[in-house]
Amino acid sequence: MIKFIILLLLNIFLFMGETLIIKTRDLFPDFVGFVSDINLKEILSDSLINELDAAVNKYAVLVFKDQNITDHEQVRFTEYFGKIEASGKTSNITKDKDRRLSSDLADVSNLDKDNKPFTLNDPRRIFNLGNRLWHTDSSFKPVPAKYSLLSGRNVSKEGGNTEFADMRSAYDNLDFKIKNKIEKMICEHSLIYSRQRLGFDMVRELSPDEIKNFKPVEQPLVRNNKLTNRKTVFLSSHIGKIKDWTRPDSMCFIDDLIEYATKEKFLYVHKWLQNDLVIWDNRQTMHRARAFDDLTEYRDMRRTTVLGEEKLI
Hints:
alpha+beta; Double-stranded beta-helix; seven-stranded mixed beta sheet; 10 helices; 15 strands
């Protein structure tokens, strides 16, 4: 009995002393936090989860090193922050029979179900090249995603970095006239638009029933995070048109905004090491993958996504 009480008191003491250790970059103290002394294989306490959630809202991107986790452990960790957004027919063109992973995980690798790299002209490879365009996960859904969590199970030897842009700072630094101009703008988002930028014609590649899954949705160009009370520019290569604008004028304007919002002063470049895990807030960032030798290298990247919590329109 005495031994039990001592162990109980010790656990209470350890719980009370539990806290996050987060380092930031000197020049950008409010964008990207590097979390240490945490093991994502373990079950985390409510207090630690709340600290992590607050940190994602504050820094927009969190980096965890040396997290050799399983799919089950990644899913469990993701569910601390909300319900998982299933990967399926509204997010990619991979048939169910060809899936390599469960629907809880988005497979953003270059591998088929036999763990072999996609061939040059495989439609799935061409479709996945869209991840190299600046985008926000699931902006093409009526309720866009909240957080994304990407685990580097096997990383490329060269290239394959992920770049993140801070859409809060991008908005803050906009010219006053541009802020006024975009305040009430509504944009159409669809995977059809982003893949058209690559010359990939989804209308031709998919059946009429399949293409219905990618019907454009409307989103505001300016978002406000209710927790931080900071505005962001809600940009993505999935944007194909501004409401009441011609499409050519829309694309010129959006491309100019993306070029502005991805200047070096707004960026963090993550150079992947084995077993890195990165969380980012899709409400506050934009991101893109960089090129690597995807025809020969085996790059195994697994993403879980937290469902958004509200329609923006």
